[in-house]
Write a structure and sequence with these properties.
With 136 residues, this protein is α+β, with helices and mostly antiparallel strands. It is built from four helices and seven strands; from the N terminus they run βαββββααβαβ.
């Protein structure tokens, strides 16, 4: 079965993570500081940019649009969010793991408009998994 992971990333903010958290009134899933070392699987990676991250907390088998709505519905202060999107790099990172040979996904027009209005960049990482679990 296909899996979708979504993370809203606010980057290049020069150590203003607490300010971003206060402005948005949302606790991030994670904060990464430039220069720190992050362990990913069996390797260590040096963080190149500050990053404030908010992950979708929906089941990984929900639709891409559902995950987007989940993240954006958490943002109560749209005025503060607009200011942040003007000052910093804001990216919606989507990792999609496909088990089918002809995968597809759709983004609702309402969400596309929101992304454009708030200058949010989309970043897709698409992976084809040769073998899926037996229940797929």
């Amino acid at each position: 079965m296909n899996e979708i992971y979504l993370i809203l990333k606010i980057q290049n903010f020069n150590s203003k993570a607490k300010w971003i958290t206060k402005q948005l009134g949302i606790k991030p899933t994670s904060i990464w500081e430039k220069g720190h070392i992050r362990k990913i699987r069996n390797s260590k990676v040096k963080i190149l940019v500050d990053s404030w991250e908010l992950e979708s907390d929906l089941d990984v088998h929900r639709s891409l649009s559902d995950h987007m709505e989940n993240i954006f519905n958490k943002i109560n202060n749209l005025e503060a969010f607009r200011q942040i999107t003007r000052e910093f790099d804001v990216i919606l990172f989507c990792a999609i793991y496909f088990c089918t040979s002809n995968p597809s996904f759709r983004i609702d027009t309402k969400l596309l408009k929101f992304l454009g209005d708030y200058n949010i960049k989309l970043d897709f990482d698409l992976y084809f998994i040769k073998s899926c679990r037996a229940s797929d």
